[in-house]
Design brief:
CATH class of the largest domain: Mainly Beta
Oligomer: single chain
Radius of gyration: 20 Å
CATH superfamily of the largest domain: Probable inorganic polyphosphate/atp-NAD kinase, domain 2
Helix content: 10-25%
CATH architecture of the largest domain: Sandwich
Order of helices and strands: EHEHEHEEEEEHEEEEEEH
Number of strands: 14
Number of helices: 5
Structural class: alpha+beta
Largest sheet: 14 strands, mixed
Shape: elongated
Strand content: 35-45%
């Protein structure tokens, strides 16, 4: 499936319109995957295709914010024109890899946005946090978000984390509801991790929930979680007039 859409009427209508235009212009999508919908649709499209690096991905926004969906409905004709004339730009977006070590073995996880680590039933999370082998803190709070630059404008941003250029290779740890008192001391700020470092989290309790790009995964008997920005990436197509700062302005500030 080269055109991936949610089931909303608006998205299905846009899909039908797009297919007609592509046929008219005799354009075959080949290795291009088009997600029509909102940000969730884009993430589901990439996930469904197993983060395959041989594909190019682009989104058409029929949702609300649609931060990942670079093409608006009014831009479809220009998108098709640039696609036909090979004027679209390609950007590499690096994936986050997480290795969960359990008593029964390891679990490998890839994410585009972030992982969120909490305890089952969302009780207070306690755990040791290290960067490589250097001890950072004994964290106490609701949980931890470890976000990619691509995901920095999502959940991470809503909790006061930094917005980062999405082509940078790094990770960002953002605490979720940190508890600080005369017994517990944890960082309240986000910490940006360079690409040559990894994050280790050792939970005090072994049963945790990891939310991977919005999807919850309950894992038992966890010893530690290791997460880092990998050398693997997906390729996203951008329109020729794409500019990261203009996009931030348009999506969050609307000055222009």
């Amino acid at each position: 499936m080269n055109i991936y859409t949610n089931n909303y009427v608006k998205s299905l209508k846009v899909k039908n319109l797009l297919e007609k235009k592509l046929i008219k212009e005799k354009i075959k999508l080949k290795n291009l995957k088009i997600a029509i919908g909102g940000d969730g649709t884009f993430l589901n499209c990439v996930r469904k295709n197993k983060y395959n690096t041989k594909y190019n991905y682009i989104g058409i926004n029929t949702g609300t914010l649609g931060y990942y969906q670079d093409v608006s409905i009014k831009d479809i004709n220009n998108f098709i024109k640039e696609l036909k004339e090979n004027k679209l730009k390609t950007q590499k977006i690096y994936l986050q890899k997480t290795i969960v070590y359990t008593k029964k073995g390891i679990i490998n996880i890839y994410s585009l946005n972030e992982i969120v680590i909490r305890y089952k039933n969302y009780k207070v999370f306690k755990g040791k946090v290290c960067i490589n082998n250097a001890f950072l803190e004994d964290y106490v709070g609701d949980g931890l978000i470890i976000a990619t630059p691509f995901g920095s404008t999502g959940y991470n941003k809503s909790l006061g984390g930094a917005i980062m250029y999405d082509t940078i290779r790094s990770l960002q740890i953002t605490p979720l509801g940190t508890i600080n008192n005369n017994k517990y001391i944890s960082l309240n700020n986000s910490l940006i991790i360079p690409s040559d470092k990894f994050v280790i989290i050792e939970p005090n309790d072994s049963d945790i929930i990891i939310t991977i790009d919005g999807k919850n995964k309950y894992i038992k008997d966890v010893i530690k979680v290791k997460t880092f920005i990998s050398n693997e990436y997906i390729k996203i197509l951008r329109q020729s007039n794409y500019d990261f700062i203009k996009k931030l302005n348009n999506k969050f500030l609307n000055y222009i």
